[in-house]
Amino acid sequence: MSFYPFLEEEHSFTIMKSIVETAIDGIFLIDTEGTVLMANLAAQRLFGYERDEIIGKNISLLMPSPHRELHDTYVHNYLNTGIKRIIGIGREIEGVHKNGTLFPARLAVSEIILNHEHYFTGIIHDLSDIKIAENKLIRLNQELEEIVIERTVELQDAVNRLLDTNKLLNGAIDKHKASEAALMLIQEELKKSLEKEKELGILKSRFMSMASHEFKTPLSSILSSAGLVSRYDGPDQASDRSRHIEKIKSSVNHLNNILTDFLSVNRLEEGIFEPLVSQFTLDALLKDLKSDMEGLLKKGQKLIFQVTDPEIELSSDKNILRNILYNLLSNAIKYSDETKSITCRVIPVGNNVSIEIIDEGMGIPLEDQKYIGSRFFRASNAINIQGTGLGLNIVDSYLHLLNGSLSFTSHPGLGTTFTITVPLQHEK
Q: How many other CB atoms are there within 10 angstroms of residue 419's CB atom?
């Protein structure tokens, strides 16, 4: 039976081979002796070997001890007993690169029987970036814990100073005014410490909530899809395999976007970003941006650009301005339903230019609007939509670099308008 009913067998084989060779995960095929019969390009890159260095070799070459020595025993035990220990069950392993270094990976093994011969396929997904992200989350959590401890010590010190002041007041009536002033100062310090403690608690709660949802969801999708891909091994199940592979790609891209947001916040805080000023027309920037945004549009959505003067020129950082508009436009698309329109309107205002991003989406609840732009904050009606709560915070920081400003108006259920204003000529 053809891989696709309308294709010849040779074309079906070519398509299957292309899918395997272009997969982002490593794919191996071995026989019952553990000999590698096939390894795709991703597998070669992952382990650092050329194809000729792997084909015909025992798969244990890519395993650390003691699994390297015991691998053939695992296969023979299964063939003798029929008991599946890892077949059909994904698990985390360590792979050995050609240079001898170990790396974390997710392995899914499946069995193929052709002409009464047993073969085994292994799909290996590199977990290095995910482990780095997990370790970064752990470090961030530890840092927050240390800050809370420090603030608690400061609070205790302030309380102790307050008690000492009260004792002095009881024993020194003649110094009442001076002691009263000292008490007021300490109370102010205590109030500031409590406010900082509260802010840190809120920030930590938001971060943990965001991280738990935004990392756990794509990771779960990756694991489940990787496991399901191995089950769809029939020639008529290519669409199912492709669907789960696309889910894996989408989840990995989402994780990459989260880490990019974290990195942007870190660079902005450390002052690494410095505007790179150049001369460009706003109309050209918007046309280039439109082609990128159209790929994000939902079914029936329209992206409308309204530029009254296509000759408007800016002397500013083109990339930073583009990132700002990309963030606002992608938000408008994400928070709007299908068939809705998103409008980008350019309005010259003296020595500045204002750009409005207008959507017909869900809008922002009134009680949440005062928190928009706060780090890790998500509006109550957007909790189930992917996002880190960092986008508008980063946009605001970018605009500060360009000497610009951000404002918005929103009506729940009717839509939101974000307005950025930047000078035509950037001045440091």
A: 17
